[in-house]
Design a protein that fits this description.
Oligomer: single chain
Pfam families: FMN_red (PF03358)
Strand content: 15-25%
InterPro entries: Flavoprotein-like_sf, FMN_Rdtase-like_dom, NAD(P)H-dep_reductase
CATH topology: Rossmann fold
Shape: globular
Number of domains: 1
Protein name: NAD(P)H-dependent FMN reductase
Number of helices: 6
Distance between the termini: 17 Å
Order of helices and strands: EHEHHEHEEEHEEH
Number of strands: 8
Organism: Pseudaminobacter salicylatoxidans
GO molecular function, one term: FMN binding
Helix content: 25-40%
């Protein structure tokens, strides 16, 4: 079975290091035989999570679209920046809205249930954004997502990529390959994807 993996960054800033890290993950996954869908959260704009708004209008359609996309993949990979040692607000808001989905067309629907994910991070400092991944891991596990142990964190990201977007450092390349391989293996094992 070919594993279907969804990849996105936790930032939509032009030139974001997390976007470049997500691109590197996309290549690593494809080289190991995965069918990869790379998206941008810019295509799924959402209001700030608000239960009054949810009660009045329901879960926003962009959250539903993203939830359906997650459901049609075996797993996903998030490349995240770190904001104040934690999760960037764009990513947290997105995760929260998708977690509010309970039904789709009257049918019970929980996009995260049974899914497996990999986490990557990047920053311009030596900590490589890793502090934010502790919080992201906790949030996703609370949403019933299994998080694989290997992760790839990119320090000094302003110098980490060559002109082709590849990692300059051999150890980073090997780390991303391990993340990709582990995610693919676990996603195949646990696949609960919905066929559309």
């Amino acid at each position: 079975m070919t594993a279907r993996i969804l990849v996105f960054a936790g930032s939509i800033r032009t030139g974001a290091y997390s976007g470049r890290t997500a691109d590197a993950a996309q290549r690593a996954l494809a080289l190991q035989g995965a069918e990869v869908t790379r998206i941008s959260l810019a295509d799924y704009p959402l209001p700030i999570m608000d239960q009054d708004l949810e009660k009045e209008k329901g879960v926003p359609e962009n959250a539903m679209r993203l939830g359906r996309l997650i459901a049609t993949h075996d797993g996903f990979l998030i490349a995240s920046p770190e904001y104040n040692s934690s999760i960037p607000p764009l990513l947290k808001n997105t995760v929260d809205w998708v977690s509010r989905i309970r039904k789709d067309g009257g049918v019970p629907f929980h996009p995260y249930a049974g899914k497996v994910a990999a986490l990557c991070s990047s920053s311009d400092g030596n900590f490589a954004g890793v502090r934010g991944l502790y919080h992201l891991r906790s949030v996703l596990m609370n949403c019933q997502v299994e998080i694989i142990t290997p992760q790839c964190s990119v320090p000094r990201a302003q110098d980490a990529f060559d002109d082709n977007g590849e990692f300059r450092d051999e150890q980073l390349r090997k780390r991303m390959e391990l993340v990709a391989r582990t995610l693919i293996e676990r996603a195949r094992m646990l696949s609960t994807r919905v066929e559309v």
